[in-house]
Write a structure and sequence with these properties.
The complex is a heterodimer of chains A (about 60) and B (about 425).
Chain A: E1 2-5, E2 24-26, E3 32-34, H1 44-53, E4 59-62
Antiparallel strand pairs in A: 1-4, 2-3
Chain B: E1 3-6, H1 26-31, H2 41-51, H3 63-71, E2 78-82, H4 92-99, H5 101-115, E3 119-124, H6 127-139, E4 146-150, H7 160-167, E5 191-195, H8 196-207, H9 212-216, E6 218-225, E7 231-236, H10 241-248, E8 255-258, E9 264-266, H11 277-282, E10 291-295, H12 301-315, H13 321-338, H14 346-356, H15 365-379, H16 381-387, H17 393-396
Parallel strand pairs in B: 1-7, 2-3, 2-5, 3-4, 6-10
Antiparallel strand pairs in B: 6-7, 8-9, 8-10
Helix pairs in contact in B: 2-3, 2-5, 4-5, 4-6, 5-8, 12-13, 12-15, 13-15, 14-15
Classes of the chains: A alpha+beta (about 60), B alpha/beta (about 425).
Protein name (chain B): NADH dehydrogenase
Family (chain B): Belongs to the complex I 51 kDa subunit family.
InterPro entries (chain B): Nuo51_FMN-bd (IPR011538), Nuo51_FMN-bd_sf (IPR037225), Nuop51_4Fe4S-bd (IPR019575), Nuop51_4Fe4S-bd_sf (IPR037207)
Chain lengths: ~60, ~425
């Protein structure tokens, strides 16, 4: 399972990190990066919540 | 004016041809052994693979693997000759299209045979090159439809996904991956996007199979330095950077900007490195598209890095927020070194940026910016320190331009086509 970030869509809202702090890092400028792939059962829900949190649909969960 | 010279052994096949200052016509090209179709596509692919030919656009990916991936992707694919050369220090692709359009078209047709493609494109921005390619297509109509697609000249327009997007009718801007072009490209079908020099070398391997190892192990480079004219050269792998610096006319360079803007800066102690993609990668730099800029003894590496970063920041496609902000921030930090006005904590901040930013954009522009700054920190730490709060006399003078002029290639009067052009 992969959490993918489209950098052309990330506007630096930073809302994705709160539900998935282990998967997403916010840099000095406020932009997100995916730092770990979600694990089924443990962080899958967090990844889904991060995808839903983005106002600009920059995150996608792929199986 | 940019000179042209061959630094390869005599009697070996080369892409420079016999008259690099004049556009080669179909007849002259055929006389060199071009356009002969005796080699079966599978056999040619095997030769390309055995010779170890790698892409000449910058990434250096093995050509045979790419050809096979497109061939085996399931649908009839599309082939694209990518002649859009965004690196300001590189001229070899535009020269090749202006001087030897038939060599490139022959390579494109061979790639189409290998992959089973039924359509081809030549993608470029150089108007002179576009004219020579169109004339070559009229002169010798190809077996499959080949369309010339022009794009505005920008740093990112030649990036694979930007090429596909432009041919599909959009802007020449990169997209997020996946999908890669070989999976889903022009009109959604598998697409081979190949650099024009790569295609030229495929055609050369078809025409001169005996010389295939030499063909795969030599490359076009654009050499530039302060004070003397740039040099477009064909060179065999294994020659040292020192040899190339002498050939260009900067015998004792203070440093080198490698691979366009993708190999970063290297110091003078690296001049004995052999020009070979693997050797350079192992040493932490890159051959890239073969654009090499030697620093004259009076030039400052900080100033050159700053000029490169200013170019990259100006050429950001402005699609990715992190690229606009990240590249702009690196440009400003390094720019402040050229005026001796660095803000406190610059070195540690710059170290953090060059570690955190690579791989974050849709294309490689942000990586090039981070790599340039990282190499400056690694190779010239003493210079970075001395530039923090003291203006550098060399940096005050305007930096020599990064842009190299494309060699003039005289057109040739072309006889009337002997056969009717194929209907498009």
């Amino acid at each position: 399972m992969k959490l993918r970030l489209d950098p052309t869509r990330c506007q630096g809202y930073g809302l994705c990190q709160e539900p998935a702090p282990d998967l997403i890092d916010i840099d000095d400028f406020g932009y997100a990066s995916v730092v770990a792939d979600p694990a089924p059962g443990t962080s899958e829900d967090a990844a889904r919540a991060a995808v839903e949190a983005c106002p600009n649909s920059a995150l996608r969960l792929e199986r | 004016m940019t000179r042209i010279d061959s630094l390869t052994p005599r009697e070996t096949p080369g892409v420079l041809g016999a008259a690099p200052g004049v556009t080669e016509d179909a007849e002259a090209y055929a006389a060199t052994g071009g356009y002969r179709t005796r080699t079966a596509p599978a056999e040619l692919l095997a030769r390309v693979e055995a010779a170890g030919l790698r892409g000449r656009g910058g990434a250096g990916f093995p050509t045979a693997i790419k050809l096979r991936a497109v061939r085996d992707a399931g649908e009839p694919p599309v082939v694209v000759a990518n002649g859009e050369e965004g690196e300001p220090g590189s001229v070899k692709d535009r020269w090749l299209l202006r001087a030897r359009p038939h060599l490139v078209l022959d390579g494109l047709l061979r790639a189409a045979e290998i992959t089973g493609a039924r359509r081809g494109y030549v993608y470029l921005s150089d108007a002179t090159a576009a004219g020579r390619v169109r004339r070559a297509l009229d002169e010798r109509p190809p077996r499959l439809p080949v369309e010339v697609v022009e794009t505005p000249h920008t740093y990112v327009a030649g990036e694979e996904s930007a090429v596909v997007r432009r041919i599909n009718g959009g802007p020449a801007l990169p997209t997020a991956k996946p999908p890669r072009a070989y999976e889903e490209g022009v009109d959604g079908v598998p697409t081979l996007v190949a650099n024009v020099e790569t295609l030229a070398r495929i055609a050369l391997i078809a025409a001169r199979p005996d010389g295939r190892h030499h063909t795969a192990r030599s490359t076009l480079v654009t050499l530039a330095g302060a004070g003397t004219d740039p040099l477009l050269a064909e060179v065999s792998y294994g020659r040292t950077l020192r040899t190339l610096a002498r050939a260009q006319g900067t015998p004792e360079p203070a440093g080198v900007l490698m691979g366009g803007m993708f190999g970063g800066l290297i110091g003078p102690h690296f001049l004995d490195l052999a020009l070979d993609p693997d050797t350079l990668t192992t040493a932490g730099t890159a051959l890239g598209c073969g654009a090499i800029r030697f620093l004259g003894p009076d030039e400052c590496p900080v100033s050159l890095a700053s000029a490169a970063l200013a170019h990259l920041a100006a050429e950001s496609a402005r699609q990715c927020g992190i690229c606009v902000t990240g590249t702009g921030s690196i440009r400003d930090e390094v720019g402040s070194l050229t005026t001796g006005t660095a803000a406190p904590g610059l070195v540690s901040r710059l170290h953090r940026r060059v570690t955190a930013l690579p791989g974050r954009g849709a294309c490689g522009l942000l990586d090039a910016a981070a790599g340039t700054a990282r190499s400056l920190l690694q190779v010239f730490p003493h210079l970075v320190r001395s530039h923090l709060d003291t203006p550098c006399p060399s940096c005050v003078a305007p930096a020599a331009p990064l842009t190299v002029a494309v060699p003039h290639v005289a057109g040739r009067a072309v006889p009337r086509p002997r056969t009717a052009p194929c209907p498009r």
